[in-house]
Design goal:
Length: 448
C-alpha cells in the first residue's frame, strides 16, 4: 500500500463518523500524490502526513447561557488548533446547528493550506458551536458569546491563536466576543479579527472574501483570454461572502442574477440590487422573501416546495458562497448543459467531490475554496499587522494589497499545476503549492 493510502486508511479508522473531514483529506491527498512520491522515504520516516492530519490540539467545551425566558441553554463549543508550522493558528468561528467535530476539523484542515497560499505568516485553525443565532435576541447573542469566550479565552492570544468570523459570526458576534476577552484578560490586543472599525477592525475586512473571490476569478479568466465584463453570474448564499461577491462582480461589469438562503433562492432578471440585498440581510436581518416582495424583477423559489437551486439557471460563471456540499453532481450537469465557463468556490468545499470531477472532465475552469476565498483570511492577517503596528491603513491600501495577494495566489496555483504536468488543474495547483510550503516548514522545525 502506498504511504498516502496507508495514512488515509488511518484517518478513516481514527476519525470514524467524520465524513467531511475524510472528504477534505482525500481531496488534498489525491492532489499531492506526485510530491509525496518524490519524497516518500523522508516523509515516511518523519511521519509527516500522520502529523499533518492530526490537529496539534482540539478543545471541546460546554457553553451554558440563559435565554430570554430565564431558561438555561447548553451548547457545544470547540476550537481545533490544527497546524502552527507557518504562524499562529488562524481561522473563523462557525455558529450553526450543523456544526460537528467533523465539520470543524474539515474546515481547520483546509485552513492550513488556504493560509499557506496567502503568503502571510498564519497557521490553520477553526472553531465554532452548534448554537443557532437565527431568531435570537441581541441579548441572547451577547449571553452566548460571553459564555463561549469564558472558556475560549484561555486558549487564544494575539501571538498564538486568532479566531475570526464565519457562518453565523459577523461583526456583532465578534464585538461581543472581543468585549468579553478584554474583560477577562485586561488586554486590548489583536486576538480576534473582523472587529468593528472603531476598535481595531481593518477596512475591507467585511468585503474581503467576496471581493477576493472576484479578483482571483477575473485573473483566472484573463489568463485564459476571457473578459468577465458582460458575463452572467449565479451566486448562492446571501451572507457576508455572497453579498460582497455580488457587489464586486457587478462593479466589474458582470450581471448577477441569483442569491439564496437556507429556505430558498431568488432569480432577479434585472440583476441583483445589492444595496437592497444589504438592507434586507445586513440591516433588517430578514429572509430573501422580503427582497422578492420589494423588487418586481425578482422571483422567489422555495427550496422545500420546488426543490430547485440557483444552479438551475443559465449562467456563465457560478459562485457558490453558502456552505459545504451545496453544489452536487446533478447541479454540475445542469450548469454544464447550460454552458457554464467557470465555477469558483466562495464558500468552503461547496462543490461535492463528484461534481468537481465532472466539471474538471468537462473542462470547466474551477478554483477551489482554499484559493478562491483566501481573501478573507488574508485581510484578517492584514488586520493583525495593523493591530501590531497600532495603525490603520486606508481602504484603498488594504484593497490594493488584497488584489495583489489574490493575483499572486492565482499565479502560484497556476504555476504549480503546470510544474506538475497538470495545466489548468487549479485544485492540484492549490494543494501542491500550499502543501510544499507547510511540509518544508514542518520538516525544518523537527518532530513537534
Ligand atoms: P454567513 O453566515 O454570512 O452567510 C451564510 C449564507 O449561507 C447565508 O445566506 C445562509 O443562509 C446560507 N447557508 C448557511 N448554511 C446553509 C445551509 N446548510 N444550506 C443552505 N444555505 C445555507 O456566512 P459567510 O458568508 O461568512 O460564509 C459563507 C461560506 O464562506 C462558508 O462556507 C464559510 O466557511 C466561507 N468563508 C467565509 C469567509 C468570511 O470571511 N466570512 C472566509 C472564507 C470562507 P441562512 O441565512 O438561511 O442561514
Amino acid at each position: 500500500m502506498s504511504y498516502i493510502e496507508e495514512v488515509y486508511q488511518r484517518v478513516l479508522t481514527q476519525n470514524p463518523s467524520q465524513p467531511e473531514f475524510h472528504q477534505a483529506v482525500k481531496e488534498v491527498f489525491d492532489s499531492i500524490r506526485p510530491v509525496v512520491e518524490e519524497n516518500e522515504t523522508e516523509y515516511r520516516r518523519n511521519a509527516l502526513l500522520e502529523r499533518l492530519v492530526s490537529p496539534e490540539r482540539q478543545i471541546i467545551f460546554r457553553v451554558p447561557w440563559i435565554d430570554d425566558r430565564g431558561q438555561v441553554q447548553v451548547n457545544n463549543g470547540m476550537r481545533v488548533q490544527f497546524n502552527s508550522a507557518i504562524g499562529p493558528y488562524k481561522g473563523g468561528l462557525r455558529l450553526h446547528p450543523s456544526v460537528t467535530p467533523s465539520v470543524i476539523k474539515f474546515l481547520g484542515f483546509e485552513q492550513i493550506f488556504k493560509n499557506a497560499l496567502t503568503g502571510l505568516p498564519i497557521g490553520g485553525g477553526k472553531g465554532g458551536s452548534d448554537f443557532d443565532p437565527k431568531g435570537k435576541s441581541d441579548r441572547e447573542i451577547m449571553a452566548f458569546c460571553q459564555a463561549f469566550m469564558q472558556e475560549l479565552y484561555r486558549h487564544i492570544g494575539a501571538e498564538t491563536d486568532v479566531p475570526a468570523g464565519d457562518i453565523g459570526t459577523g461583526a456583532r458576534e465578534i464585538g461581543y466576543l472581543y468585549g468579553e476577552y478584554k474583560k477577562l484578560t485586561g488586554r486590548f490586543e489583536g486576538v480576534l479579527t473582523g472587529k468593528g472599525k472603531t476598535f481595531g477592525g481593518s477596512k475591507v475586512r467585511s468585503e474581503a472574501t467576496g471581493y477576493g473571490l472576484l479578483y482571483i476569478t477575473q485573473e483566472m479568466l484573463k489568463s485564459n483570454g476571457i473578459d468577465i465584463s458582460g458575463k452572467t453570474v449565479s451566486v448562492s448564499g446571501s451572507g457576508n461572502v455572497a453579498i460582497y461577491a455580488i457587489e464586486k462582480a457587478e462593479q466589474l461589469g458582470a450581471r448577477v442574477v441569483t442569491a439564496s438562503d437556507s429556505n430558498g433562492w431568488i432569480y432577479d432578471s434585472e440583476g441583483i440590487d445589492v444595496e437592497l440585498l444589504k438592507d434586507v440581510k445586513e440591516r433588517r436581518r430578514q429572509r430573501l422573501t422580503e427582497y422578492a416582495s420589494l423588487r418586481p424583477s425578482a422571483v422567489y423559489h422555495d427550496k422545500k416546495t420546488e426543490g430547485t437551486t440557483p444552479w438551475s439557471v443559465k449562467t456563465d460563471i457560478a459562485l457558490p458562497c453558502a456552505t459545504q456540499n451545496e453544489l452536487t453532481l446533478d447541479d454540475a450537469r445542469t450548469l454544464v448543459a447550460n454552458g457554464v465557463i467557470a465555477v469558483c468556490e466562495g464558500a468552503n468545499m461547496p462543490v461535492t467531490r463528484e461534481a468537481t470531477e465532472y466539471l474538471k472532465e468537462k473542462k470547466v475552469y474551477f478554483i477551489p475554496g482554499k484559493a478562491a476565498n483566501a481573501g478573507g483570511v488574508a485581510t484578517s492577517a492584514l488586520e493583525m499587522s495593523q493591530n501590531s503596528e497600532r495603525l490603520y491603513w486606508s481602504f484603498d491600501e488594504v484593497d490594493s494589497r488584497l488584489r495583489d495577494i489574490m493575483t499572486r495566489i492565482f499565479r502560484k496555483i497556476d504555476k504549480a499545476a503546470r510544474d506538475y504536468g497538470m495545466p489548468g488543474d487549479y485544485v492540484a495547483g492549490a494543494n501542491i503549492a500550499a502543501f510544499k510550503k507547510v511540509a518544508e516548514a514542518m520538516e525544518m522545525q523537527g518532530v513537534v
